[in-house]
């Protein structure tokens, strides 16, 4: 049975959205195709009408998350206040506690480094975030905007990874606060 193109596109989008969330929450190996399809309300069979393999879905999810991240960054007001609010939101307990809706780098970066087939898509994401940040946000100081964008990204991603990883809430919040202050 063939479905109308709009319905097929909606299902494809639903799979991407749900997979992007679940992969960020549990990692690539922590989600099976069956679980994913169940979470979307679809059966296992149609998965292969949308993606050739789980690996293809993983790459598509990186591109999907990346496109949303670039759009969100470009929506940040290009001002000191906009940059400060963006950093504060990123380095918040809300972001720390919601990996399924959060940053691709903090959730899946280490996994992408071990998945040769995903490294190119992840590399493009990182390049685009750095160049968009360098171009869009206001940067001051002696170092180039690109250098400051790289430093900020590395500090923020590292802070979220550490804050999520420790079992001490007070230490977790201290990590987020200290990195936020260092970027002011």
TrEMBL record:
What SUPFAM superfamilies does the database record attribute to this sequence?
Answer: Homeodomain-like, Tetracyclin repressor-like, C-terminal domain
In terms of PROSITE patterns, this protein maps to: HTH_TETR_1, HTH_TETR_2
- Name the keywords, alphabetized: DNA-binding, Transcription, Transcription regulation
Give the matching InterPro entries.
DNA-bd_HTH_TetR-type_CS, Homeodomain-like_sf, HTH_TetR, Tet_transcr_reg_TetR-rel_C_sf
Q: Which residues bind DNA?
A: 32-51
Q: Where is each HTH tetR-type domain found? A: 9-69
- Which Pfam family is one of this chain's hits? TetR_N
Tell me the protein's name.
Answer: TetR/AcrR family transcriptional regulator
């Amino acid at each position: 049975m063939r479905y109308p193109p709009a319905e097929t596109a909606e299902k494809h989008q639903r799979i991407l959205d749900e997979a992007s969330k679940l992969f960020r929450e549990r990692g690539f190996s922590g989600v099976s195709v069956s679980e994913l399809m169940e979470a979307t309300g679809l059966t296992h069979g149609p998965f292969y009408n949308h993606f050739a393999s789980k690996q293809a879905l993983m790459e598509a999810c990186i591109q999907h998350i990346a496109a949303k991240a670039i759009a969100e960054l470009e929506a940040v007001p290009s001002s000191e206040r906009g940059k400060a609010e963006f950093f504060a939101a990123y380095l918040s307990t809300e972001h720390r506690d919601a990996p399924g809706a959060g940053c691709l780098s903090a959730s899946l970066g280490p996994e992408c480094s071990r998945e040769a087939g995903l490294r190119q898509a992840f590399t493009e994401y990182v390049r685009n975030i750095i160049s968009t940040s360098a171009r869009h946000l206001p940067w001051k100081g002696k170092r180039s905007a690109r250098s400051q964008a790289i430093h900020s990204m590395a500090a923020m991603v590292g802070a979220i990874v550490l804050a999520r990883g420790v079992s001490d809430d007070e230490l977790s919040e201290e990590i987020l606060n200290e990195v936020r202050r260092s970027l002011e």
